[in-house]
Design brief:
α1 (about 20-30) links the parallel β1 (about 5-15) and β2 (about 35-40). With about 90 residues, this protein is of the alpha/beta class. It has two helices and three strands. It has helices spanning about 20-30, 75-80, and strands at about 5-15, 35-40, 55-60. It has a single domain, classed as Rossmann fold (3-Layer(aba) Sandwich). Strands 2-1-3 form a three-stranded parallel sheet, covered by helices on one side. The structure holds flavin mononucleotide. Flavin mononucleotide (FMN) binds near residues 14, 15 and 17. Flavin mononucleotide binds near residues 15, 18, 61, 63 and 65.
Length: about 90
C-alpha cells in the first residue's frame, strides 16, 4: 500500500508516558509508510485547526479516578463545551 503524502495527525494525552510512547511509536511507523504525519500532546495543539483535520489518531490514558491526563485537560474542556457545532468533527476520520 502507498500512503505517500496522506496526512495523519497523532495526538496523545499521557500522565506517566505510556500513551505518549505508544503515540510516538505509531508516528514512527506511519513515517515508514510515507504518511505526512505529526505527533503532539493534545494541549500543545491549536484546537482552532481541528476543523481542517481529516484523519487523526487519539491515544489517551486515564489517571486518578478515571480522569484525563494533565496534558489534555484544555482540549477535553474544549470538547465538552455545549455550544460547539454538532458537525464540528464531521470531516474527521
Ligand atoms: C494514579 C493512577 C490512576 C489510574 N487511574 C486509572 C483509571 O481511573 N482508569 C483506568 O483505566 N486506568 C487508570 N490507571 C492506569 C493508567 O491508565 C495506565 O497505567 C496507563 O498505561 C497510564 O498511561 P500514561 O503513562 O500515558 O499516563 C491509573 C494509573 C495510575 C498510576
Amino acid at each position: 500500500m502507498n500512503f505517500e503524502n496522506a496526512k495523519i495527525s497523532i495526538f496523545y494525552g499521557s500522565q506517566t508516558g505510556n500513551a505518549q510512547d505508544l503515540a510516538e511509536r505509531m508516528w514512527r511507523e506511519s513515517k515508514r509508510f510515507y504518511f505526512q504525519s505529526s505527533v503532539k500532546a493534545l494541549d500543545d495543539y491549536n484546537v482552532a485547526e481541528i476543523v481542517d483535520e481529516r484523519c487523526a489518531l487519539f491515544v489517551c490514558s486515564t489517571t486518578g479516578q478515571g480522569e484525563e491526563p494533565d496534558n489534555m485537560k484544555m482540549f477535553w474542556k474544549f470538547l465538552l463545551k455545549k455550544n460547539l457545532p454538532g458537525d464540528l468533527l464531521h470531516n474527521l476520520k
